[in-house]
Amino acid sequence: DHRDLHSFPTRRSSDLPKAGPASVEFRNVSMRYGAVTAVDNVSFSIEAGKLVTLLGPSGCGKTTTLRMIAGLEIASEGQILIGDKDVTRLSAADRDVSMVFQSYALFPHMNVLDNAAYGPTVKGLSKAKAQEMALEKLALVGLKGFEKRFPSELSGGQQQRVAVARALVLEPQVLLFDEPLSNLDAKLRRRVREEIRELQQTLNLTVAYVTHDQEEALAVSDRIIVMSNSRIAQEGTPRQLYEEPADAFVADFIGDANMVDVTVKSVADGRAAVAIGPANVSLPARGLQPGPAKAAIRPQSLLVSRHESQGTLPGTVRKCAYLGNHLDLMIETAVGELFVISHDVDDMLLPGTPVWLSFASSGVILVP
Asked: Which of 3, 204, 298, 342 is deepest in the core (most CB within 10 A)?
């Protein structure tokens, strides 16, 4: 990561034009390392002033995609545009892009102010001008008064903010984040992701954000691009991906889902009559015809009762864990073992307890 940073700006200019946020477009972009294809024929666009997340498991190609926007990797084929300018073959130094690395990549021998002023200094601005620009951005991320501290004297969250300030100093057309919260503890993660989202909206920044954490992606994004095996599995708003996953991979990756075998008994007016074991539900058909199918059932969409009623799915409690504001349950049923989240924390269901499951009006989804 330190190497990457040094490969950033080397152009000199007396002062830098402020270009404002720019769109990003990938047209049939692939990245190959010898026989290995890291990114395979990917096309997408990021609107100027929007935050788009590349989401997916390790090795899916999301970080390589981000590095191609930065110019730290040069695409094997296809076209990359920033604004309306073709930057496919341009080096990192010739693109108006800044990146916040997972490791923050702060210089340990420099104080906060010098770290934040690094970009403009390298671009040839006077020290006074570079520090003036850096002070403005440090204030923006809530680090006024920390200028003389060294990275080792800061908490993880503060180091993260220095990295963000340094990336913002040059007011890049596109700001890139690579797993920015992975070094922070859970409580801090929530706060810092809210800060990043607020900054992005307040300053109208174009942001490409990489994470493998689906909750983080749902919380910060205007749009999410889910990647799997070097390709795009699906893209859309957080709500579209959660409520209308294109396939089993997306359903399971965006929020937990129980994938179960079901039978579509009939279809009329876009609705399907579906048998889930002995239970029957009506669901949006999503283009499916009668026959065997798969459904994704969200854990919080399964409602637990100790009493049998019409159309319910009987089961037996296997495990029950108390998590403060909810219970995590594993329930054995005719369609397999189901993971259930119950908010009735006063009713600890002991293993072996017979229960009956009914289905909430949302969160049960036929998967094409």
From this structure: 298
The distance between the two most distant Cα atoms of the chain, rounded to a whole number of Å, is: 77
Rounded CA separation 358/82 (Å): 50
* Nearest in space to 153 (alpha carbons), one of 202, 194, 112: 112
Judge contact between 206 and 48, C-beta under 8 A.
Answer: yes
Say which residue the tokens 């459904």 belong to. Answer: 295
Q: State the angle between helix axes of 156-168 and 127-140 in degrees (0 to 180), rounded to the nearest 10.
A: 130
Q: What DSSP string runs through 38-60?
A: EEEEEEEEE-TT-EEEEE-STTS
**Helix %, strand %, coil % of the chain (to 5):** 25, 35, 40
pLDDT in tens, 122-168: 889 999 999 999 999 999 888 999 999 999 999 888 998 999 999 99
Whether the model clears a pTM of 0.90, i.e. scores above it, the answer is: no
Q: Strand pairing of 302-305 and 354-359?
A: antiparallel
Q: Which of 308, 267, 273 is nearest to 289 (CA)?
A: 267
Q: Which three-class secondary structure string do you get for 86-144? A: ECCCCCHHHCCEEEECCCCCCCCCCCHHHHHCHHHHHCCCCHHHHHHHHHHHHHHCCCC
